[in-house]
Amino acid sequence: MHTLSPRRRKAIAAGVAIVASASLLLTGCGRGGDSTGSSGADGPKIDDKPATGTLEIWAEGADGAKLPEMFEKFKKDNPDLKINMTQVPDTDFVSKMTAAITAGTVPDLIYSFTEHQSGLLSTGGFDAVPDGLVNKDDFFPAIWDNSVIDDVAYGVPWYAYADMTIYRKDLTEKAGAEAPTDWDGLRSFGEKLKESGVEFPLALYVNYDSYTARQLLTFAKQNGGGFISDDQKTWTINSPENVEALEYWSGLIKDGLASPDGPEFLDTVSWSTTGKNAAIIDGGPWFIGWFDDANGKGWAEEHIGVAVGPAGPSGEEATTVGGGSWLVPTDSKNKDAAWKFTRFMSQPENQVQWYKIFHNMPALKAAWDDPAMQDDPVLDTVKKGLETGVTLPKVSTWTQVGDVIGQQIEKVVRGGVSAKDALDEAQKQAESIGTGS
């Protein structure tokens, strides 16, 4: 497994923020009317005739490197179509795409990482998914819902991932511990590994930015909380459930079960390999391949175990998830071909083929029934996690607000500020920032 996650790519580029602030938002245009959320576009459906003309695709980040292999298959049934692809670095993608929407110089089709979709969709520069193109119920809900705004779907999921607990089997056995299944078990796991000599048993996301906030959001959901109201209009950051979640999360650091300073993302594999950590909490499946890259093929199978994230005190399950979706700009010159290629990439066999090519995992539930997706503990754990995925706040200001939450989390960890006071301050700042609507 060697999947490069958009979440982790952003972590490497620390300090490079998603361009989603109010100053970059465009006035609303291109959004559909009332809809069931299964698609939402009025007008003609996409027919089954071969696509023609030229299809311009912008590919975000490394995922586009192997995409031409899928073009070859698509063009067998669409021989009169020419496909041009431009690979755009992920750190530049949102600003470049926002500028293209402003100038009317957009490509015909893009795919967007989960973290970028709210900012992009806030521009109003994308068409709703045509009625009948796909069935929303075929996709994992958290991945589908990420690009649904006001009950209108603007994106079709292409691939998905779910984070998990990734732990050292040998160190766990030595400590007489078991893989944690709930909050109490996670703390007990950390305490036993600490007693056995592991310096920092648990690796948490301690960059104190929007990704730290995202990890806290997952813990908050496990505790029955959340950062924003269901209608995405009101911040709920300082709810009692969220305060309890932050008290628990920060307590793992204060009690020496996790370090407040690391591991930095690129150090995670070395920390776990050398036994400085015993478990990556909320870690992505790509780490499995990275362990083999660092230590030799087969090392991960021998040393690493995986488990779904811990349930909260009342048994509520919630998992950090992400992925990528296809979006068609309103000013696209070949929407017919764009949606037909999107439909092609939404067929189970093609999502499985993409998994074989690039190891990005399917967003379609049916694709997981393919033999290629069976008998793999990592895949089994990812699939379970996708069933309980947490959707990020679907507002253009999420990254800005998330960074505020991350900064306040650091004050709890380092500055002696209480979880309640920190989240009260984050709530105050979030209300000042707004939701961008």
Describe the structure in brief:
This protein is α/β, with parallel strands linked by helices.
Characteristics:
four-stranded mixed sheet; disordered N terminus; alpha/beta; seven-stranded mixed sheet; 437 residues
Write up this protein.
This protein is of the alpha/beta class. The chain is built from 17 helices and 15 strands. Strands 2, 3, 4, 8, 13, 14 and 15 form a seven-stranded mixed β-sheet that branches. Strand 2, helix 2 and strand 3 form a beta-alpha-beta unit. Helix 16 packs antiparallel against helix 17. The longest helix is centred in the last third of the chain and has 18 residues.
Structural topology:
Layout: H1 6-12, E1 40-41, E2 53-60, H2 68-76, E3 81-88, H3 90-103, E4 109-113, H4 117-121, E5 129-130, H5 141-145, E6 148-149, E7 152-153, E8 156-162, E9 164-168, H6 169-174, H7 183-195, E10 202-203, H8 210-222, H9 240-254, H10 268-274, E11 279-283, H11 286-295, H12 299-303, E12 304-307, E13 319-327, H13 335-345, H14 348-358, E14 361-362, H15 377-386, E15 389-390, H16 398-415, H17 419-433
Parallel strand pairs: 1-5, 2-3, 2-4, 10-11, 13-15
Antiparallel strand pairs: 4-13, 6-7, 8-13, 8-14, 9-11, 9-12
